[in-house]
Design brief:
Two copies of one chain form a homodimer. The first copy, chain A, is of the alpha/beta class and 342 residues long. Helix content of chain A is 45%, strand content 15%. In chain A, α10 packs across α11 (249-261). Chains A, B: One of its GO terms (molecular function) is DNA-binding transcription factor activity.
């Protein structure tokens, strides 16, 4: 007779649910319990029938996270939070890299691998609202970030205008008046940069500080190298800034490196603030002030929205009844050495 | 009549192969060509029949990369190289996080999602040779790293003993004699730490410098926080080191932060070298000397081994004829400010 999950539970002295949790690789099982269940599985030579289970549910238990770049720490940290949030629903997360290329993003939303996944969380860079409107695939999907604001899909974001305003106001509050912005972008993909720049301009206006275009540095991307180069150009420019708001932490870490090379004191001569609160900035010298989006909340909200869509689908309700939701996650200003000193 | 790929090629004035490349989202197509093909696709309302294609090949075109932690920069950077290498074969890479938990790693090798993927690249932390020997799933697989050396699977690694020796010899060459090692591990999973420690000891022995256990700091993990704490404990210990070999760059970045907090000059008072050559260390203050594994080569070798296995499978040859291969990738010593000064 074939060994059942119940047999394993009995031998291990745990509930069938616990055996199921171990078999599914859920991480919240205590190590000692896990060992006991594994020993029982080995003793009875139990083989869980995973594919039958998937078929019964009509699901694979796998969701995809598609991001532009895997090695950008913000996305890597967000991915970790999403893996944890998905684990609470018993889902495995597979991560896909789009490079921000529109055709790849279109494929992702087009059901490119609809037989593989139950749901999709996508952080688009190039996708248009029209691309989304044309979508016929019905795989549950949640979008992250600013790119397709007010589009026809559930959407999780933070208030980037307010956050940009807060970062700039923090620098103004230190008495700085020649505040640079690094990370402006002219490309269509630069929606995030545009809203952060709007916040920067609003804060300047509120403080009565005139906007000076020469203090705004455009960058092709949001990498350390871009920040290092933009900072060098600003130092060589006509108006030397006394503070810099970088539109992400990588740009700020690049800027800090250039300032160290030039012997500029931070924050005494130039105060620096970033955006994202990646771990690097908690260990850099000096540590980096930043805007910290609540990544855990972004992950939880995204997974919850996906779960809602799956439930709606399961209940057979019409999609039309369930309009797209736009949910804001929290953020906070984190003040560290790069603006406050030691 | 249904629009075919050939119709699109004709309208766009390109070869059917180029249309196929665009449809598959391969990244080596020139932007201008891509646009022309996309316009032709839109004009003709062409819908590629992806699932039929997958069925014909009997493949999904998807390979999985399973790593312990997505937000460890070494794995994130390796993932990016693997995505590029896989793209040259027309494969999409999905990344899976195991947390280094043995049961999750066992599932990954056990064909947990064998219907989803054509091949698997796994960087294990907890998996045993016995786990591998028991494997019945036949999905092509390549292992990375030191964990299951000489196991029954294709395997890509670098010579960690030699690399550990080179890192230590570099510090000895600066005239340092009280050289600490940070990152020793006692857990079974600490195979990488053990081989790097062996290299450290060999270099000391070759230089006639006695091994001093009090200079070796064990850490629970390889994160920045571990390096920061270990460095603090060494500074408070009986023998103050004049150099530190950290078993990865994150540990070294944590150590640098502690040294800055304590006002210790790097490299004047203490020289620091890491391991991995992650981008963070090229922008830190000071920049970080390190061992740089050739991540691009590791990625290329892994994908090539997977491709070989797929071809062997396709040709119907017996697996037995194709013994497991162990392939070494290159590494080099990179000397920066944390050992050489500015």
């Amino acid at each position: 007779m074939r060994t059942t999950l119940r047999d394993v539970a009995e031998l291990a002295g745990v509930s069938p649910k616990t055996v199921s949790n171990v078999v599914n690789g859920y991480l919240h099982v205590r190590a000692e319990t896990r060992t006991r269940v594994e020993e029982a599985i080995a003793t009875l030579n139990y083989r869980p029938n995973l594919s039958a289970r998937s078929l019964r549910r009509g699901r694979t238990g796998v969701i995809a996270l598609a991001v532009p770049e895997l090695d950008v720490p913000y996305f890597a940290e967000l991915a970790r939070h999403l893996v944890a949030a998905a684990d609470r629903h018993g889902w495995t997360v597979l991560v896909d890299q789009t490079e921000g290329v529109r055709e790849r993003e279109r494929q992702v939303i087009g059901g490119f691998r609809d037989q593989l996944i139950d749901g999709l969380i996508l952080s688009p860079l190039a996708l248009t609202v029209a691309d989304l409107a044309e979508r016929t695939d019905s795989t549950p999907m949640v979008l992250l970030g600013e790119r397709v604001h007010h589009g026809p899909a559930d959407h999780v974001l933070i208030d980037n205008v307010a956050a940009g305003r807060d970062a700039t106001a923090h620098l103004l509050g230190l008495g700085r008046t020649r505040i640079s912005a690094i990370g402006a972008q002219t490309a269509a993909a630069g929606v995030t940069a545009r809203v952060r720049l709007r916040g920067y301009r609003e804060a300047l206006a509120q403080a009565g500080v005139p906007f000076d275009e020469r203090l705004v540095a455009a960058t092709p991307r949001f990498h350390r190298a871009d920040g290092a180069q933009a900072m060098a150009e600003l130092l060589d420019g006509p108006t030397r800034p006394d503070a810099v708001f970088c539109f992400n932490d990588l740009l700020a870490l690049g800027a800090l490196r250039t300032l160290a090379d030039r012997g500029v004191r931070v924050p005494d001569d130039i105060a620096v603030i970033g955006f994202d609160d990646i771990e690097d900035g908690r260990y850099s010298v000096p540590t980096l002030s930043t805007i910290s989006p609540d990544k855990r909340q972004i992950a939880d909200l995204s997974v919850d929205l996906l779960d809602q869509q799956l439930r709606v689908g399961a209940a057979g309700r019409a999609d039309a009844e369930h309009g797209p939701q736009e949910v804001f996650a929290a953020y906070r200003l984190v003040e560290r050495e790069s603006t406050l000193g030691r």
